[in-house]
Design brief:
The protein has about 140 residues and is α+β, with helices and mostly antiparallel strands. The chain has two domains: about 35 residues; about 100 residues, Rieske Iron-sulfur Protein (3-layer Sandwich). Helix content is about 20%, strand content about 40%. The chain is built from one helix and ten strands. The strands form two sheets. The chain has a six-stranded antiparallel beta sheet, with no helix packed on it. The chain is elongated. Bound molecules: FE2/S2 (inorganic) cluster. FE2/S2 (inorganic) cluster binds next to loops.
Length: about 140
């Protein structure tokens, strides 16, 4: 009789444990998704030349990250990573001062991506810009 109770307790305990595991395993898997490597993007279209005025900038997507395209002249463009090197805020073009500004901590970069003032510790990553037909194309520098 005692042996039968032990077997029943063991079966119930095992079933309870299996239930707990079946609830917790999917929850833990969901909270810890597998690392999927980001697809490498080396070139993106930033739109048509005529869509960007001279002395204006716009944010475009470079893969999953923002890039800043600036039209500095009739046929001159500059492009940089739009991620501030201080604490990763998105920078923007200031047409009145012809500088790149980070609003988070007042970081300033020049049109070469070099730090002018503020806390950013390093220049912005610069991208190569080509005009292909009427399309502006950004690419990573080799
Ligand atoms: S994050 Fe850009 S200046 Fe701090």
């Amino acid at each position: 009789m005692a042996q039968r109770r032990t077997i029943v307790r063991w079966l119930l305990g095992g079933g309870f444990s299996a239930s707990i595991v079946s609830f917790l395993y999917p929850a833990i898997k969901f909270m810890n998704p597998p690392a999927i490597p980001e697809a490498a993007v080396n070139e993106v279209s930033a739109g048509k030349v005529q869509d960007l005025k001279v002395n204006a900038g716009k944010i475009v997507k470079f893969g999953s990250r923002p890039a800043l395209l600036i039209r500095t002249g009739e046929s001159e463009f500059r492009a940089f990573s739009a991620i501030c090197t201080h604490l990763n805020c998105t920078v923007q073009y200031q047409d009145a001062r012809r500088e790149i500004w980070c609003a988070c901590h007042n970081g300033l970069y020049d049109l070469n991506g070099k730090v002018v003032s503020g806390p950013p510790p390093a220049p912005l990553e610069e991208y190569a810009v080509r005009v292909r037909g009427d399309e502006v194309v950004l690419s990573k520098r080799a």
